[in-house]
Amino acid sequence: MTFPFDRARMSGEAARLACRSGAITGCTAGIADGYVQGNLAILPADLADEFLLFAQRNPKPCPIIGVSAKGERRIPELGLDLDIATDIPGYRVWRDGVVVEERASVADLWRDDLVAFVIGCSYSFEAAMAEDGLPLRHVEMGVRVPMYRTSIPCAPAGRFAGPMVVSMRPLTPAQAIRAVQITTRFPSVHGAPVHLGRPDLIGIRDIQAPDYGDPVEIRDDEIPVFWACGVTPQSVIAAVRPAFAITHAPGCMLITDRRNSEFAVL
Amino acid sequence: MTFPFDRARMSGEAARLACRSGAITGCTAGIADGYVQGNLAILPADLADEFLLFAQRNPKPCPIIGVSAKGERRIPELGLDLDIATDIPGYRVWRDGVVVEERASVADLWRDDLVAFVIGCSYSFEAAMAEDGLPLRHVEMGVRVPMYRTSIPCAPAGRFAGPMVVSMRPLTPAQAIRAVQITTRFPSVHGAPVHLGRPDLIGIRDIQAPDYGDPVEIRDDEIPVFWACGVTPQSVIAAVRPAFAITHAPGCMLITDRRNSEFAVL
Q: Going by C-beta distance under 8 Å and a sequence separation of 6 or more, which residues neighbour residue B138?
């Protein structure tokens, strides 16, 4: 494949190979339209079982769409040729709960005891919202979606515990109702909102001061609508301070062969 | 059938026959659980075509579930034996836009040019909400649901035009999201809410002063959730001041043979 190519119209497989070869670097937003992208968390086996249970108990912030076998870099259900150690354009390496390095491959760090978790991401339901004509303010403004640590506790599992992180999109009340209908169809990529209209009730004091991402404008006729966010697992993993872990770098997601429409339940 | 009988466990047909015979009088709430109840509007044929178009253009406040042929008192799709002139426990007779009489039968007022419209009612979606454990404050308080004239215009059709009337149920934000999911399944009985959280945006100045029904408590952690209401057609019919019309008396609905679950689309 030679430059320039149409990133939006690539298949999931072609995009993933381009990431692997270095032809695509950085943020994967807008690449391979229609294909599911995922968050990555790689943990040693001694933590992986507990994390899997944590995700099972908290499917809204941690919707797992693929898990590797212990020591395996393949996750065939997300792409036959997929190599989880090379196919993401940016990785973060964590030691003792701190990011020590960002890099384009973790092949040389791979260990026989690692388990990779791929977690659904909001790109899938945002695509469905945009298709229906609903606004995505952070996309219009060209910034990151605002995210907040809430007072909603996740259900703990073993060493994993902590508050749910949510992302926020401002909508008019009628659009919010439509957004509930649309995102309900995608339970494996965060699904319906968890809250709307009253940030104070979930421990958010200043809606213009998100804990992650960037603030966005909320217009006079709009209310904030909150979805469980894939940053939640990263946040609870960091709190456990594992000796070793790998995640994707922000915005650098795994592009899969699965289509967003496959994840719609209705 | 002899008294006392279990009103909640009657079939739709048995309840309708009891209404016809006078064994049941007054409000039909709580009778024949699981069976669809409907609002009634009977109009002369010269208005009926325009009203049908109005309903087609405003399906959320005017979800029609049955229409009689001109001059016919039968609506077989709602009950094989159904007689629309006798089977409702209370009718209102309107002349020149004003209620002139309430009575238990309109058989002797029937005319060859009348058309009967049966319009879905919120009892069906309220049953689904209650089954899911969602609170219905007006039921808890034993009062009528609060209803409001809004600034949301209905789409006009011929002589019929006017604002949408909505009913309001207070819910926590998480319950409101669940209520959107549940009531979305019932598009032919008002369906999903039309608004939530911000009464000011739809022209409601004082939520404690409803235009119809009774005020209900809204708790600190709740938001008002608004559904299109079957009072809308009565309100627009009254505004047209037809020379002659018949409706049900408030709370005295038509009990049909259809089951609420038949109206669920998913």
A: B144, B145, B146, B169, B213, B214, B216
| Residue B179 near residue B130 (C-beta atoms within 8 A) | no
The DSSP annotation for A33-95 comes to: TTEEEEEEEEEEHHHHHHHHHHHHH-TTT--EEEEPPTT----GGG-TT--TTTSSS-EEEEE
Distance CA B31, CA B28 (A): 6
Structure tokens at A48: 């992986």
**Which contiguous run of DSSP H or E holds residue A232?**
helix A231-240
Q: Which tokens is B88 given?
A: 């409702």
ipTM of the complex: 0.85
Q: Is B193 on the interface with A (CB under 8 A)?
A: yes
Q: How close is the nearest chain A Cα to the Cα of B12, in Å?
A: 31
pLDDT in tens, B201-234: 999 999 999 999 999 999 999 999 999 999 999 9
Closest B-chain CA to A193 = B177
- Of the candidates B154, B226, B140, B138, which has an alpha carbon nearest to the alpha carbon of residue B183? B226
Whether residue B4 has a cis bond before it, omega within 30° of 0:
yes
B197 and A194 within 8 Å at the Cβ level: the answer is no
Mean predicted confidence (pLDDT) in A220-248: 95
Could you give all domains of chain B from N- to C-terminal order, each with its CATH number?
7-121+234-261 (3.40.1640.10), 123-231 (3.30.2040.10)
Residue A198 in contact with partner chain B when CB distance is under 8 A:
yes
A266: nearest CA partner in chain B:
B266
Spatial contact of A125 and A189, defined as CB atoms under 8 Å apart = yes
